[in-house]
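Researcher: Go.
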Amino acid sequence: MAATTADTDFIHVFEPGSDPARRPLLLLHGTGGDESDLLSLGRTVAPGASLLSPRGKVLEGSAPRFFRRLAEGVFDEADLKRRADELAGFVMSARERYGLPAPIALGFSNGANIAAAMLMQRPEILGGAALLRAMVPFAEPPRANLAGKPVLILSGALDPIVSKANAEALARQLGESGAAVEHRVLPAGHGLGQTDIGLLKDWLARR
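Model: Structure:
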């Protein structure tokens, strides 16, 4: 049974898994999503895994996000740093509450961007990350030791929001910090499709 929790941290859903060999997933929605947005995707790509899915606290109009932006593709980096620390604190408390090992973040768009920021800023929090349509979070990335952490980046060749060069720069930054990066560029836009799902499922099965 899913448990929805509102407390002093984040409104979130936790679904306990049935397969203890599976790493838990931290599901991080895109702009306008919420804590239920990626549950179906999580169940599909990692059957049996525990799922932890918080709702972003920042509102852009009525659309939840994980951090502020100044314009499309232009981040408020001070807010991003603060929110990444805040989300890292939530993950640590949720791990204690639910008895979880370090999760793999599965983030889409805004959720992928804060997952990338957490990898760079608080590398101890995550066991790895699958970043869907992510961009470089920091103009000057923090120095991080990501030795051996698995990272999958799925980019869209036709994505009007994330340029090919930006996605490649993110893959390079994470790789230079020691992450084991797989970067795939798909014939897609910003939205997700069946190819994303298949690649995610295969990658997570190897974790």
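Model: The longest strand covers residues 150-156.
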